[in-house]
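Bumping my old thread because nobody answered last time. Still need a sequence for this structure:
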């Protein structure tokens, strides 16, 4: 909690960009000004904070961004900020620019940075924005729904051609450490196999056997969804083709999943989380993370939030197999 009355609030976006970050910036600026705060944008995440890239933001500065992917504040990663000296410097910069509080929109790493700043006595609020949906304390992160829908649309197209040629398609989706996109997109597109970094797999039993069983019951195509961190798609595809004799192709969806206009879910989550953050600041409540838990937007203590854990289990993954 801060002793000083909060007047000037900085907003930054950090880590990977996610569709809906702009909607969150808009909500923060407009709800903030409505509440009587002066709002500022910090460009290029913690890197820009350390370089004093701070600009005032008025209600009209956030016009026409609600529907746009990416982030108007831009994002960057900063090694300098990970060190204590960088964080102390950030505190000094905030003092020079008279910023009383900072709202950080980003993923787990960005939240770790915000937590470090809060330990230095800086009033912070975190809003989860990452397509990976891997921030432990929240059921939902801004950008996740849009990224899943983008991936789904692409896979539906791949499926059409895979079906016509009776091929197997191995599709890599984003998720270096977490398989949330793979798990849900896999189920939504009717994938035969989903491979994620959290759950160990055996190629013979979990991949080849499932594909061959599919062929034996008359399937004409096979979709294998692989989260980025679960293995090399090219290698997996070559092994599938060698073992099963089924022609196999790979597609890496990559950054296409990061962009695009946010879905209704992401615009709403971003807007509601932005409003919630401003409500906290109005009450002088800081050191908070805005989260969605059980369908409700809440604020929780940053220390408690950072200590929480969530991970996909083998049981959750195996549910997909019941659909064949
Ligand atoms: P995404 O999930 O989209 O990758 P992220 O927020 O997890 O988003 P990171 O690159 O991990 O992305 O973190 C963004 C920035 O936060 C880093 O460049 C760094 O400046 C800061 N940061 C990350 N981890 C820490 C930490 N442990 N302590 C302080 N700052 C950190």
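Sorry it took so long. Here it is:
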């Amino acid at each position: 909690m801060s002793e000083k009355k909060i007047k000037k609030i900085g907003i930054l976006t950090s880590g990977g960009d996610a569709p809906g970050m702009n909607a969150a910036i808009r909500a923060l600026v407009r709800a903030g000004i409505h509440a009587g705060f002066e709002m500022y944008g910090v460009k290029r995440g913690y890197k820009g904070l350390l370089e004093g890239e701070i600009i005032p933001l008025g209600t009209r500065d956030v016009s026409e961004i609600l529907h746009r992917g990416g982030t108007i504040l831009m994002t960057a990663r900063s090694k300098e900020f990970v060190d204590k000296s960088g964080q102390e410097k950030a505190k000094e910069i905030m003092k020079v620019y008279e910023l009383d509080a900072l709202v950080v929109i980003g993923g787990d790493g960005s939240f770790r940075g915000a937590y470090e700043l809060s330990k230095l006595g800086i009033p912070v609020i975190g809003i989860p924005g990452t397509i990976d949906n891997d921030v432990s304390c929240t059921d939902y992160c801004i950008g996740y729904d849009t990224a899943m829908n983008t991936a789904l649309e692409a896979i539906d197209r791949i499926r059409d051609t895979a079906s016509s040629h009776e091929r197997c398609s191995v599709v890599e989706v984003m998720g270096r450490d977490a398989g949330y996109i793979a798990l849900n997109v896999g189920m939504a597109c009717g994938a035969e196999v989903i491979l994620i970094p959290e759950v160990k797999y055996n190629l013979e039993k979990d991949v080849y056997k499932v594909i061959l069983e599919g062929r034996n019951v008359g399937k004409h195509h096979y979709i294998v969804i692989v989260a980025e961190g679960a293995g090399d798609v090219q290698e997996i595809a070559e092994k599938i083709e060698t073992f099963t004799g089924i022609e196999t192709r790979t597609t890496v969806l990559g950054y296409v999943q990061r962009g695009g206009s946010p879905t209704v879910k992401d615009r709403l989550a971003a807007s509601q989380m932005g409003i919630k953050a401003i409500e906290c600041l109005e009450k002088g409540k800081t050191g908070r993370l805005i989260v969605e838990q059980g369908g409700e937007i809440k604020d929780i203590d940053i220390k408690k939030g950072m200590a929480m854990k969530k991970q996909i289990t083998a049981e959750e993954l195996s549910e997909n197999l019941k659909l064949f």
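The first helix runs from residue 21 to 34. Let me know if any region looks off to you.
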